[in-house]
């Protein structure tokens, strides 16, 4: 596991450099989910595969940018699912983006995730690693290495809210719940980048990120293996919760590698509100 995390540090440094120097334009290809790829999506995916292919404990990897898994080592212990560059459409407007990694044992079901990590490519290059606890690292530009900063913990309740999705497609009970949070005084914090949006909630100590099922996305938009399971692991290890509206995210399985799910991640107070809203709604 240590070797995987060390490789993720190298991946972060190389992708950060690519973001600053490479073409931010669109490639002439789409990924399996039908998203038009940015050239940096392809470059980032190549960087991740290059590094993880060198780790003998990794049995298999699967990328959000590719249809199928890649078997690396028959005797490897870990299965790694990753989104090499989440939110890449935000790069050309100079907003923060990220990479997300889920480390699993056996297969990619939520219950089999054993660690997670994500990278924030923002004004500062930061890495969060979740194993038993959640640890924040920051890249020191002079020393050219990541330095440990602190452990991240969520309070029982926060003050910020990231309401994702197309509002005109929200179900009425979801819209009412979101409106009620704002009536309680929650501040809107939503960039359209899952990684910085969730990173902000973690660093501010609490709040709610919601990407619900809606009429345009009946199974939500965010991918289980590459985005939702890893962040659910991070939030649970930081003392928060992650649900699909009724179930803990990490109790969910998958049928296909690119399955999506509705997701709500945050502090206990906010998740309790979601559970009360969604009880019996499915
Ligand atoms: P919407 C980025 O494309 C992404 O996958 C996540 O990073 C982000 O949370 C979500 O989509 C934003 O989706 O529908 O609000 O633009």
Name the descriptors.
Fructose-1,6-Bisphosphatase, Chain A, domain 1, binds 6-O-phosphono-alpha-D-fructofuranose, alpha+beta, D-Maltodextrin-Binding Protein, domain 2, 282 residues, 5-stranded mixed β-sheet, 6 helices
Please give a quick description of this structure.
The protein is an alpha+beta fold. The protein is built from 6 helices and 15 strands. The chain is 29% helix and 28% strand.
How would you sum up this structure, described in words?
The strands form three sheets. An eight-stranded mixed sheet has the order 4-3-5-6-7-8-9-10, with helices on both faces. Strands 12-11-13-15-14 form a five-stranded mixed sheet, with helices on both faces. Strands 1-2 form a two-stranded antiparallel sheet. It has 282 residues and is α+β, with helices and mostly antiparallel strands. The model has no long low-confidence stretch (mean pLDDT 96). It has two domains: 2-151, Fructose-1,6-Bisphosphatase, Chain A, domain 1 (2-Layer Sandwich), CATH 3.30.540.10; 160-279, D-Maltodextrin-Binding Protein, domain 2, CATH 3.40.190. It is 29% helix and 28% strand. A hairpin with a 3-residue loop joins strand 8 and strand 9 (134-140). The radius of gyration is 18 Å and the shape is globular. The protein has helices at residues 2-21, 39-52, 172-183, 194-204, 224-237, 268-278; strands spanning 26-30, 36-38, 58-63, 70-71, 78-86, 97-105, 113-121, 125-130, 134-140, 145-151, 160-163, 187-188, 208-211, 241-243, 263-266. The structure holds 6-O-phosphono-alpha-D-fructofuranose (P6P). 6-O-phosphono-alpha-D-fructofuranose binds next to loops. Residues 86-87, 89, 164-165, 192-194, 221-222 line the site of 6-O-phosphono-alpha-D-fructofuranose (P6P).
């Amino acid at each position: 596991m240590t070797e995987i995390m060390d490789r993720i540090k190298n991946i972060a440094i190389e992708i950060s450099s690519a973001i600053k120097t490479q073409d931010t334009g669109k490639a002439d290809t789409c990924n399996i989910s039908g998203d038009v790829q940015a050239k940096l999506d392809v470059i980032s995916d190549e960087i991740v595969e290059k590094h993880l292919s060198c780790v003998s404990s990794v049995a298999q990897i699967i990328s959000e940018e590719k249809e199928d898994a890649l078997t690396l080592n028959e005797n490897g212990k870990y299965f790694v699912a990753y989104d090499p560059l989440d939110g890449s459409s935000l790069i050309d407007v100079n907003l923060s983006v990220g990479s997300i990694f889920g480390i699993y044992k056996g297969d990619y079901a939520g219950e089999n995730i054993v660690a997670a990590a994500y990278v924030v490519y923002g004004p500062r290059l930061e890495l969060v690693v979740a194993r038993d606890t959640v640890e924040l690292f920051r890249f020191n530009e002079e020393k050219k290495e990541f330095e440990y900063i602190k452990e991240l913990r969520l309070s029982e309740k926060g003050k910020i809210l990231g309401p994702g999705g197309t509002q005109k497609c929200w179900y009425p009970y979801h819209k009412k719940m979101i409106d009620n949070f704002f009536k309680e005084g929650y501040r809107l914090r939503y960039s359209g980048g899952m990684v910085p949006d969730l990173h902000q909630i973690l660093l501010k100590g609490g709040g709610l990120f919601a990407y619900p099922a809606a009429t345009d996305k009946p199974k939500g938009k965010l991918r289980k293996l590459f985005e939702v399971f890893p962040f659910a692991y991070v939030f649970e290890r930081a003392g928060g919760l992650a649900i699909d509206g009724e179930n803990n995210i990490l109790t969910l399985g998958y049928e296909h590698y690119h399955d999506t799910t509705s997701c709500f991640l945050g502090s206990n107070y906010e998740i309790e509100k979601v559970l009360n809203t969604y009880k019996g709604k499915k």
